[in-house]
Amino acid sequence: MSKENGYSAQNITVLKGLEAVRMRPGMYIGTTGIDGLHHLVFEVVDNSIDEAMQGFCTNILVVLEGNDVVRVEDNGRGIPIDIHPTEKVSALELVMTKLHAGGKFDKKSYKVSGGLHGVGVSVVNALSEWCEAYVHIDGKIHHQRYKAGIAEGSAREIGTSGLPYAYSPNKQGTVIRWKADPSVFETTTHNFDALSNRLRELAFLNKGLKITIRDERLSTPKTHDFMFQGGVKSFVEYLNENKTVLYKEPVYLEGSRDDGAGGQVEVEIAIQYNDGFNEIMFSFVNDINTREGGTHLVGFKSALTRTLNEFLKKSKHAKKLDETLSGDDVREGLTAVLSVKVPNPQFEGQTKGKLGNSEVKGIIESFVNEQLELYFDQHPDVINNILEKSVLAAKARIAARQARDATRRKNAMDSAGLPGKLADCSEKDPAKCELFIVEGDSAGGSAKGGRDRRTQAILPLWGKMLNVEKQRIEKVITNDKLQPIIASIGAGCGNEFDVSKIRYHKIIIMADADVDGSHIRTLLLTFFYRYMTPLIEKGHVYLAMPPLYKVSYDKKSFYAYDDAEKDRILGESGKNEEKISVQRYKGLGEMNPDQLCDTTMDPGKRNIIQVHLDDTVEAERIFTTLMGEVVQPRREFIEENALLVSNLDV
After folding, report:
1. How far apart are CA 524 and CA 482, in angstroms?
2. Catalytic residue among 46, 73, 365, 439
3. Gap between the Cα atoms of 104 and 471, Å rounded
4. Is 225 among the catalytic positions?
5. Single pTM value for the model
6. Which of 7, 225, 245, 478 lies deepest, with the highest CB count within 10 Å?
């Protein structure tokens, strides 16, 4: 029967070695885009970090060489190069070419590590066009080279001549050098800033460890050195740098607890409140950023809420509030970094986004309850400031709930529940729908005339937008400029936002190419980042790129999106200037519907930029700098970046 239908044992494929990684790279690194490319760097760096956590490494160097080559050096113990007793190849070849091979499994070489699956460096090797390892042990250098994950020969001792990095007689550790395979990745060009931000994060999480990144692709190499003696305390101070804090020194908690299985869970926490309304919280397990949280974060949040409610009962603030404080109340204006080291962490998948160890919740909860109570007893001014802010947050929450109820009642009386200015599309599948948020009624009119009514909806904005960075949630959801946006997207706002309910999978901000348009884009991005974060995280937010110029000659029209493109078109025209017409668009309203469609709205012709949230730490700092209350950091930012916009004709 199986042969008759064409399905038999011959159709069963057995992937050997690292073939599975090359065939399904997304299973191991999440994506073959820029994030996956950077994931290779972090897998190698994580191995060096594991050496640092055991006390054997003090320096890590990441170098971006020319031709998309990356090199990572550390001064750890070096990958062993002796022959494995059962596999009969060097330990170096084993860890570089075999999945689930490494020193993270026996609980002897590494009591705590982030790379516990044993697939990290072998996956890097598998997804590289070529890779090579240099191991410095006892004054000797051992080298092995690989192509697409396959060793080109055995590991062998080499001399010092021709090394692609600086050598010193006392050098110790491992050097991994590779070139990502362009047939696997969408791009093989690394982003220096994105890598720098993650390496800075790792330096915060490892006191005293020096991490250096150098970009040698530039004619004058660019270098960043990161080393922080304060650990996560320094991290919180960095995050709150441009904010007004309620007390000077972050609350710093450090200690360890028995995990019940013979190991120790190490805990390091820093918290500091500012006078803002946003919660900034980062959690890490064995230096891995657990973006999706997990049991450690649940335990911390639970303990913080419980502790503050216990202190509220004994404080003068108790009579100001009829309800207990909620988790949202106690985390308003909170900046916190939680770092735990777990001997046997259970992550969800290779990308390690969420911790699943059930025992860790109780360990963290007990630790935080005990340590916070002790700290607040010794620092009454600190707890008083925190409680005062938390009570105000609770009152605002109650007011916001009442505002939501009023809005829902209003929408219930309106059969559509959609704003009157919204020109909706007829398509009901969100994946096929686009919402253009357009600056002004004039541009809105052109956009409505040039849109595809089946899939493109238009929402014109008018008046001055609210800067949500300076407002609580109840002011946001009742704002007459933001209400139409919230209603049109249809997925709620703030903690109630549900990205699965959005009515459009593309939210496109279409503003004029001038200073006012840039301001509107920034205000809208701030709103989406603060109150609809998953909208950006899931890649639903875009920026339209309308042209700056229309160049006409010989009864033909060409559109230029910047000065360089305009000059190119003029150069290709071959005409005298008097025979060429150049129109500078000051606003979208100057374009007729056909022009707006052809240049900015037609999916087959337009340029739009997808907004990514690559680094939440830097995103937080930039939004605070540009939109926060403190003026001086904003002035410095503008002065530092003035050259980037010096050629804009506004």
Report:
1. 9
2. 439
3. 48
4. no
5. 0.77
6. 245
* Token couple for 391: 């009570």
Q: Which of 193, 516, 572, 649 is catalytic?
A: 516
Residue 514 catalytic? yes
Q: Which of 332, 474, 512, 620 is catalytic?
A: 512
Second CATH level (architecture) for the domain 414-546+610-645: 3-Layer(aba) Sandwich (3.40)
Question: Each residue of 545-556: pLDDT tens digit?
Answer: 988 888 988 888
d(CA 164, CA 133) in angstroms, rounded, equals 11
Q: Is 138 a catalytic residue?
A: no
**Across the beta sheet with 541-544, what order do the strands follow?**
456-461, 434-439, 506-510, 541-544, 608-610
C-alpha span between 324 and 142 (Å, rounded): 63
What is the identity of the amino acid at 145? R
| Third-level CATH fold of 232-400 | Ribosomal Protein S5; domain 2 (3.30.230)
Q: What is the pLDDT of residues 375-410, one digit of tens each?
A: 999 999 999 999 999 999 999 888 878 776 766 555
Annotation says 512 is catalytic: yes
Sort strands 280-285 and 334-341 into parallel, antiparallel or unpaired. parallel
pLDDT reading at 118 higher than 60: no
**Which of 514, 537, 565, 598 is flagged as catalytic?**
514
Instruction: Give the class (CATH, top level) of 19-226.
Output: alpha beta
**Residue position matching structure tokens 């007390």:** 247
